[in-house]
Write a structure and sequence with these properties.
OB fold (Dihydrolipoamide Acetyltransferase, E2P), six-stranded mixed sheet, two-stranded antiparallel ribbon, 16 helices
Length: 416
């Protein structure tokens, strides 16, 4: 049976838009209430978790420590300390800071706290996640690979030097745990659990729906994984979106449509209004948009060709968007589509190897890949070009030839 459209008529669309706007205003109002609670006293005291900690240098000044913190109250902020602090990432700290200069916009964007006091509250106990991190890192000899696989499986932070190596290859989207990883993990779990379920279903409960039952088990395991990695925002967004997508699927409503994407984005912004100011969120939305654009115009192609061409399509069409924020380009980034295709095999293989304590088998080749020499160039997307490009992207929804032209037009950013 053919899937039904999300909206039957314009009246449904208008009513949905009104309800979503109302819910978003309520959500924004709740955030404003939390902001007023935070700033109600001139000095705020709270416990927080260290999400990141690194040193920076300014010209003609000594080094200082930069902290990214998440309070137990649920807000994330940055601060600096001119006194060296031996506080590791993941530690619990006591913080005190002035709130007089924090605006509501700053609060929504992840504000910067000044005149701050930080005290380490961490104890020496090692939790389960720390044991898993140590188990992963002990399988590798090189420090950058220890960071890479810890980030790949547990969403831990990586140092600036390792991050630069990842960026020069154009694989940051593969390392940051997000919807891509959620899809692969879901597929792996379904592949493992499906034959086990069918064995018992054929003998004891043939009347059960395998898709519904396995979806419940897979989502439960994914939720536990998300809890283990401390509800990493990118994975949390993907998890919520997957739940919403499965709900639409269960109601036989078309999932791959721009109306569904718009509704999903609205739904996520209602739950997490601070994502309005998240660059990574809008990168994710742009990536999904261009995937949908490809599938709308070229879904009739052979599945193998879809898999190959889709990786080049998303890489090319995301370039003007990415280079509006990130200016650095290296020739090695042109291999990103090939690495993305290889990742579909690489990720589950490395997951299996790490489970059996053999995760370092490919370390020599991976270390060479990360340290390939390359040239760095500055590629900048001007604002006027980005606006024109996004406008053409929207119009290309209705015209296949314009979508094809858009693919080649995306490379124009290199000649501006």
């Amino acid at each position: 049976m053919e899937a039904a459209p999300l909206f039957v008529n314009k009246k449904e669309m208008a009513l949905t838009a009104f309800l979503l706007s109302l819910l978003f205003c309520i959500s924004l109002g709740w955030q404003y209430y939390k902001y007023k609670t935070l700033t109600s006293k001139p000095l705020h005291v709270a416990q927080a978790k260290v999400l990141n900690h690194y040193q920076k240098h300014k010209s003609n000044t000594r080094a200082y420590d930069v902290f990214k913190l998440k309070s137990d109250d649920g807000y994330t902020f940055y601060t600096v300390s001119w006194k060296k602090k031996n506080i590791s990432i993941g530690s619990q700290v006591l913080v005190k800071f002035k709130t007089s200069k924090i605006s509501f916009l700053d609060y929504m964007k992840k504000f910067f706290a000044v005149n701050i006091f930080i005290k380490d509250l961490s104890n020496t106990q090692v939790n389960k996640l720390d044991k898993v991190k140590l188990y992963i890192k002990n399988q590798h000899e090189f420090d950058d690979l220890k960071e890479l696989f810890s980030a790949l499986f547990l969403a831990t932070n990586i140092s600036k030097s390792t991050r630069v190596k990842i960026q020069k290859l154009g694989i940051s989207h593969l390392v940051a745990i997000s919807g891509f990883h959620l899809g692969l993990i879901s597929a792996i779990l379904y592949f493992i659990l499906s034959p086990i379920y069918r064995f018992f279903q054929d003998r004891y409960f043939p009347y059960r729906n395998i898709k519904a039952d396995l979806a419940f088990v897979v989502f439960s395991l994914l939720f536990y994984y998300m809890y283990m990695i401390d509800f990493t925002p990118s994975f949390l967004r993907s998890f919520v979106l997957s739940l919403f997508g499965f709900f639409l699927f269960s109601k036989n409503i078309k999932i791959i449509s721009f109306a569904t994407l718009l509704l999903s984005v609205s739904f996520i912004l209602i739950l997490f209004p601070k994502l309005l100011f998240s660059i990574s969120f809008w990168f994710s939305v742009s990536g999904v948009f261009y995937i949908f654009l490809f599938l709308k115009h070229f879904s009739s192609l052979n599945k193998i060709w879809i898999f190959i061409l889709l990786n080049f399509w998303v890489f090319a069409l995301m370039m003007p968007v990415v280079h509006f924020v990130f200016k650095v380009f290296t020739p090695l980034q042109l291999y990103s589509p090939f690495l993305s295709m290889a990742f579909v095999v690489f990720y589950p293989l490395e997951l299996l190897l790490h489970v059996v304590n053999q995760g370092g088998i490919f370390d020599v080749w991976l270390e060479r890949l990360l340290n390939l020499p390359t040239s760095f160039y500055e590629v900048v997307t001007p604002l006027w070009f980005l606006i024109m490009y996004l406008g053409l992207s929207l119009i290309s929804i209705f015209n296949r030839w314009l979508a094809i032209l858009l693919f080649f037009f995306s490379f124009a950013v290199f000649f501006i």
